[in-house]
Amino acid sequence: MQIKIHQIYFHENQKASLLDGFIPYFNQSKNFRQLYETEVFFHLFDESELVDENFYGAVSWKFGEKTGITGNEFFQFVQSNPNKEVYLANPYPELIHLYDNPWIQGENVHPGLLKISQTVFDLSKYRIDLSKIRLEKDRQLYCNYFAGSGVFWKSYLIFLKDMVSVIETESKIQKLIKRKTSYIYEASFLPFFLERLLPTYLFLNPEIKTVSYGYKDEFLLNRYLKVIKEKEDALFRHQRIFRKIPFLNLLRKLVKY
After folding, report:
1. Which residues, in sequence order, are CB contacts of 79 under 8 Å at separation 6+?
2. Does one domain contain both 203 and 231?
3. What is the DSSP letter of 16?
4. Ranges of H-type helices in the chain
5. CB 63 within 8 A of CB 31
6. Which of 81, 106, 153, 173 is the most exposed place for a label (fewest CB within 10 A)?
7. Does one domain contain both 66 and 190?
8. Rounded Cα distance, 132 and 113, in Å
């Protein structure tokens, strides 16, 4: 078994963030369809060259920064959890306690995403109500930080191509999904749609065996405290009053799983 994780970067100053053991992938001028990591998947993982028992992934240059995981730690994670098909490294573990699935969370931060995404699926051959998906914690992911077996990728690539085909052939969808949404930089709904496809595919295929990286307590505590701080700031802004009970209830919800 071989584990081949590519790490995507598109500026020279990002090379310092690349992790030892991961394969650097310079993404210059390859994203002509604006499909982000999905385009990289299509370019890297030719179905005829995938080996069933090997594991493959393509993560962003921010992987180490967001997860706190080294390349060696991720390899150990895969090797110490045999007989799985997909290995997830969810950098936002607090979200699995707050939302039933990534689409509902996405609607919260990108209003309109759920309706647009549902329209895409309604036009595809995959029948699913995105608002009713319920995912176990080992199947939730909010970005493309994962590794899958060659067998998995062969089937997942078909699913991705089907979804991209709907986007690129339906003029109604193109107009909707390329509208701008709020983010730290100017972006359309498209990348936030694409990065939520993996957990949806896992929901549609419950037989796929998955495992999610188990973070250390310090990392989890910092993530939970960040959520508490954000809720506290929002309360000050909107209610101009400090109340302890909502934060205690939120904390109980976060730590109870």
Report:
1. 3
2. no
3. G
4. 37-44, 63-67, 71-79, 95-98, 102-109, 113-122, 150-169, 171-177, 190-194, 197-204, 217-239, 245-255
5. no
6. 81
7. yes
8. 15
State the DSSP H helix or E strand holding residue 7, giving kind and residue range, or none if neither: strand 3-9
Cβ neighbors of 156 (< 8 A, separation 6 or more) are 148, 198, 201
How far is CA 59 from its chain centroid? 10
- Indicate whether 155 and 248 sit together in one domain: no
Mean pLDDT, 10 residues at a time, over the chain (257 residues)?
94 94 84 77 86 95 95 97 96 87 92 95 96 91 96 96 94 87 77 95 97 86 73 49 49 52
Which residues are registered as beta bridge partners of 188? 180
Q: Secondary structure of 123-177 in the HEC alphabet? A: CCCCCCCHHHCCCCHHHCCCCCCEEEEHHHHHHHHHHHHHHHHHHHHCHHHHHHH
Question: Quick one: pLDDT at residue 245?
Answer: 45
CA 105 to chain CA centroid, Å, is: 12
Tokens 């997909």 locate to 86
**DSSP-assigned letter for residue 84:** -
Task: Please indicate, yes or no, whether residues 206 and 188 belong to a single structural domain of this protein.
Answer: yes
Domain, as residue range, for 104:
3-215
